[in-house]
Automatic annotation (TrEMBL):
<feature type="domain" description="CheR-type methyltransferase">
    <location>
        <begin position="8"/>
        <end position="284"/>
    </location>
</feature>
<dbReference type="InterPro" id="IPR000780">
    <property type="entry name" value="CheR_MeTrfase"/>
</dbReference>
<feature type="binding site">
    <location>
        <position position="85"/>
    </location>
    <ligand>
        <name>S-adenosyl-L-methionine</name>
    </ligand>
</feature>
<dbReference type="GO" id="GO:0008983">
    <property type="term" value="F:protein-glutamate O-methyltransferase activity"/>
</dbReference>
<comment type="function">
    <text>Methylation of the membrane-bound methyl-accepting chemotaxis proteins (MCP) to form gamma-glutamyl methyl ester residues in MCP.</text>
</comment>
<keyword id="KW-0949">S-adenosyl-L-methionine</keyword>
<protein>
    <recommendedName>
        <fullName>Chemotaxis protein methyltransferase</fullName>
        <ecNumber>2.1.1.80</ecNumber>
    </recommendedName>
</protein>
<feature type="binding site">
    <location>
        <begin position="229"/>
        <end position="230"/>
    </location>
    <ligand>
        <name>S-adenosyl-L-methionine</name>
    </ligand>
</feature>
<dbReference type="Pfam" id="PF03705">
    <property type="entry name" value="CheR_N"/>
</dbReference>
<feature type="binding site">
    <location>
        <position position="91"/>
    </location>
    <ligand>
        <name>S-adenosyl-L-methionine</name>
    </ligand>
</feature>
<dbReference type="InterPro" id="IPR036804">
    <property type="entry name" value="CheR_N_sf"/>
</dbReference>
<feature type="binding site">
    <location>
        <position position="155"/>
    </location>
    <ligand>
        <name>S-adenosyl-L-methionine</name>
    </ligand>
</feature>
<dbReference type="InterPro" id="IPR029063">
    <property type="entry name" value="SAM-dependent_MTases_sf"/>
</dbReference>
<feature type="binding site">
    <location>
        <position position="87"/>
    </location>
    <ligand>
        <name>S-adenosyl-L-methionine</name>
    </ligand>
</feature>
<keyword id="KW-0808">Transferase</keyword>
<keyword id="KW-0489">Methyltransferase</keyword>
<feature type="binding site">
    <location>
        <position position="129"/>
    </location>
    <ligand>
        <name>S-adenosyl-L-methionine</name>
    </ligand>
</feature>
Length: 284
């Protein structure tokens, strides 16, 4: 009896070809995310919890919901479930050295009067990347009151954005922060030795906002640097080309674009030149 029940339970949540094709098309249209066939089991596993939460017995019912006027907030739940959020503080540390020496310090020497600097962390996940940027920024641009400095941190996943805005992380996560930054910018929580919180000085530098990179961007001003690491790997080549061109539009000439270790602009866009490993400078 238990064996039959388990077998029935497995069949109940099979993701059939028709439903998988619908989800692939839906996500591509709504977010630009491209899912290949080998991601089918991952999609199934991550969405089963949503089906159970909604009291649905199969993926056909779930797809019908997404295809109806009642989809509403479920699209957000779908995206939150599908997107992968793997990040840590000072991941790919050479990027932060480059930011300091090639973007921030030159600006410090060129602009003695309250200069303006804007950095965008696109696909910021749970916030470790923008906080890493903020630590470098606060260290270089001291006193910070003398600067008009801001980091825009965006992601499509609202759960991750809330974590970032709270600025609370496990002590294990904080171990990735270099000691000099950790001493200055990380605060122990009262009665909780397992978690830490980012200093108010950092939190004031960052604005966390939800943004779907596939849609219209509301920002008006240009950026000095954009971090978009391990995001473009979710998109097909035409979407990547369009995205990189939009980034060029949003950067000052000479501004920097930081990509993930598996990403490249080679053969993708002639508005950038290589500045360092997976770092590109806008040239036109």
């Amino acid at each position: 009896m238990n064996a039959r029940h388990d077998h029935s339970h497995q069949r109940e949540f099979n993701l059939e070809d028709r439903e998988f094709r619908f989800l692939v098309s839906f996500l591509s249209r709504e977010t630009g995310i491209v899912l290949s066939e080998h991601k089918r089991q991952m999609v199934c596993g991550r969405l089963v919890k949503r089906l159970r939460s909604l009291g649905m017995r199969d993926f056909a019912a779930y797809c019908a919901l997404l295809d109806s006027p009642a989809a509403g907030a479920e699209v957000e739940h779908l995206v939150n479930a599908i997107t992968t959020n793997i990040t840590n503080f000072f991941r790919e540390p050479h990027h932060f050295d480059h930011l300091r020496h090639q973007v921030l310090e030159p600006r410090l020497s060129q602009s003695p009067k309250k200069p303006r600097i804007r950095i965008w962390s696109a696909g910021c996940s749970s916030g470790q990347e923008p906080y890493s940027i903020a630590m470098v920024m606060a260290e270089v641009l001291k006193p910070s009151e003398a600067w008009d400095a801001l980091i825009l941190a965006t992601d499509i996943d609202t759960n991750m954005l809330k974590r970032g805005a709270d600025g609370i992380y496990s002590a294990e996560d904080a171990a990735h922060i270099p000691e000099n930054y950790r001493k200055r910018f990380v605060r122990r929580l009262h009665n909780d030795s397992d978690h830490v919180q980012m200093a108010d000085e950092l939190r004031r530098l960052i604005r966390f906002k939800r943004l779907n990179l596939h849609e219209k961007w509301p920002m008006k001003g240009k950026f000095d640097a954009i971090f978009c690491r391990n995001v473009a790997i979710y998109f097909d080549k035409p979407t990547q080309r369009a995205l990189f061109n939009r980034y060029a539009d949003m950067l000052h000439v000479g501004g920097m674009l930081y990509l993930g270790h598996a990403e490249s602009l080679i053969g993708m866009n002639d508005r950038f030149e290589a500045s360092d490993k997976t770092v590109y400078r806008r040239i036109r």
